[in-house]
Amino acid sequence: MALTSGLGGQLSIDLGALARNWRALDQVSAGALTAAVVKADAYGTGISMASKALYAAGARFFFAATPDEGMAVRAAVPDAHIFILNGLYPGAANLYVRQNLMPVLSSMAMLEEWLAKCLERNEAYPAALHFDTGMNRFGFRLNEAPLVRERLQTLGYSPQMIMSHLACADQPNHEKNRTQLALFGSVMAQFPGIPASLSNSAGLMTGRDYHFQMVRPGIALYGGRAVNGRKNPMAPVVTLHVPILQVKEARTGETVGYGAGYSLSRDSRLAVVGHGYADGFFRSLSSSNSRPGGKVAIRGKLCPVVGRVSMDQITVDITELGHDVPNPGEAAEILGPHISIDDQADAAGTVGYEILTSLKGRYNRNYVGDGNLPPE
To answer: What percentage of the chain has pLDDT greater than the value 70?
Structure first.
């Protein structure tokens, strides 16, 4: 494969696959509303274009992490219902009101500031309430539920939704899932008639008991693995190809890369690829003689990274390609049909989420798969 536009890496985002993934999850969650999580620049795919594609697919509820992300969604899809997962930033209530953003309130301080703004404007601005059922991240403590309920009843305020978040949904048989489900049920009982949401991508796939009135898929929309130990059913959304810059011969015993941690055990042919940790290819994908590293695909065959990942380059052993020698300017596949997001994540000792959200490198972005969407 030759790179045909631009001189750097080519990052392609398949908006059609993104839309198909949302529709597939929407079928699984039948009976519940299917939202779309678009935080972290829509998991590295571009929040504006991703939000438009998801809206066109049928999504109407969106979850962002920050008000800035929420405003980006609002600009892309003006009619969307947008929740801000990080809650109400201190002193920012006027911004949320102007932009019609719904904070996910997770503390008494957030709740009081939001209620004060509602009283000031004589308007019940919508918000969600997040309760901590065992993750010890965001959320009201369970013993605060009666106080929250009493405060809301005093003012006649009804939240849009009650939420919590599963800590171990990627392990469907983990006991903590059932514990959190039971605790969430105890919270819901104190807020009768209020819609509820518990499931992320993995929770959605775990079972209908976790669906309630809304599910909040994230990683699965973008083609990443949500549940460990199962075949990933989602369509890949992202591909990344980067240029080969040089092909060279190296001899037995010579070292490769910074630190001289990799010595060649044979005469080798190496390809220097224009992609490094500045582009989101983690240093943990480096290799030494005692530890394998990541791989890339060249001419459809997997080739190992040798030596340490540099800021701007990686070196790849292409000896096994034999006489099928690539030319400078040809593409090395970093993500694509031969190497998935999760393949790279496994090699790096991380998760697909981090691979996707690190795609901030020096790429030419190309959106494909839906000609009905306007250009970015």
So the answer is: 97
